[in-house]
Specification:
Elements (H helix, E strand, L loop, with lengths): L7 H11 L4 H7 L4 H8 L5 H13 L2 H8 L11 H31 L5
Helix pairs in contact: 1-2, 1-4, 1-6, 4-6
Length: 116
Amino acid sequence: MTAAHKNKTLATFLAALLGSFGAHRFYLYGKKDRRAWLYVLFFPLSAFAGFIAALVIGLTPDERWDAEHNATSGRPSDSGWTVILIVIATFGIGTTLLIAAIARTFDLLYTGGAYG
């Protein structure tokens, strides 16, 4: 019996866009995945975890991806440039948000929020 083919590009996109809700984990492992529900439970804290998951999924080689998620699907993955563009956008957005969070934290800690 062949299993459904899990698309690496779609998983990367879901992690980048809806990763803070665990959408990529629900796509890959289904509703019974406990870690997916942790993403939902700790939504505000899991925003950066979604970006990291998108980077990890997107940078996984196709052969390793197929061994983990598509061993019985009978189709090889061929992600192409789309997944790389998603990884680049995720890296840029995630880095910008991280720097903004660090700057805001220092503003609150050292000036009491005087600059915003």
